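Task card 7
Instruction: Convert sequence to structure tokens.
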Amino acid sequence: MSGPEGGGGDRAATIAPPPARRPVVTARRRIAALTRLELADALRSRWLAFTAVIYTLVFGAFVWLGLRESAVLGFTGLSRAVLHVANATVVAVPLVALVASCQSVARARASGHLELILAQPVRRGEWFTALVLSRLAVLLGPLALILGAAAVAGAVTAPADAALGALTVHALLVAGSLVWAYLGLGLVVSAWSPTLERAVVMALVVWLTSAALHDFALIGVLLQWRVPPGVVFGLAAANPVEAARLAVLAGVDPELSVLGPVGFWIANQLGPTATYAFGLGWPALVGTAAVALAHRRVVRGDAIG
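Output:
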């Protein structure tokens, strides 16, 4: 009775079913998961609270100044406060961005976090992209919320202040370009520093050189020699901080009269539109080059510090 049909049925019964296909995890999903992990780490280390407190203090101080009766370049009330905040971010944002990024890669190597991440099915470039995205969210998120709240408050309390909306977008663009520049510089410092201590020292040197020593050196050159305005512009604009300051001024004072002869030369040779584009574009270019250099170091360097 065990004919061919019976034997074939037994063999068919013993054939195992095909294994279930595992879901394909794309690079985008891996980067999203790593970004959430880095954001959680930033929240545990209170970087988000630190940046929010710094921005709130700066904005609160200049709101108090902006609500005075005097006017600056025709801006009063909250529009004047946002104008002052745009000027303050030129100095505050580089320091906050460097502090938030200068230890990130070096700490991940020294603590073994990078080695643990690479033990998973992820690539170094994906982890680095997640690190950049998380730091951008931490640095720009609180500032965007504060400026957005100021724009909404101004629209409710002072609807006649037509300059507030454009000035808020202008301040956010300048801050975003400067954050990108110094985030990249901080990542370069972190990627090339063998220890956390050296990373902090190098970050402070970068900030002091761009925020303070560059101005003193430029003033010394101007006092010692009669330098043509074009050369002065080149020396000043090579610094991302000064380029961002030019963008702030060009956005509210097309004549750049506050800069004297140099401002007259810039207004006539470049014009406010080109000056504004340069003030946003040069820090963004510096940041892009720095991020690319840090990415190359992370991808090709050691995973253990």
